[in-house]
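Worked problem 6 (solution included).
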Amino acid sequence: MSDDERRTFLLSGTLTAVLGTVRKDGRPHGAPVWFTLDGDDVIFTTGAGTMKGRNLLRDPRAAFTVDSGTPPFDFVTIEGRAELSEDMDEVLRWATVLGERYMGAERAEAFGKRNAVPGELLVRLRPEKFVALAEIAD
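Solution. The predicted structure is:
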């Protein structure tokens, strides 16, 4: 995929991602996340007390995979480091964007407000490596 094709794929519909983080004992942890993009950066929110939140607070390395799930099968994997913010204005802004993408415009504001609370983190995954393939079963 080209860079534009990768972005178009990642922003299409309501695809979810699986976020891979590193547990304290070194084992991998995977969890689904809603996300959007800011340039090439992947944006999502999570609670600081969740497994993924605790893992990222301790070790910012992460892998992020989105796949189409239907033939001919497309996928994007991103490896990078997460930057975390507890700035509630930023959490509100991006949680509202996520709410619109996944819940619809009519529920975006309520979703943003529900998630812009103390203990919630804004995660900005800064890509270091992309693997983006289209039509792998064609």
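Discussion: The chain has a mean pLDDT of 97.
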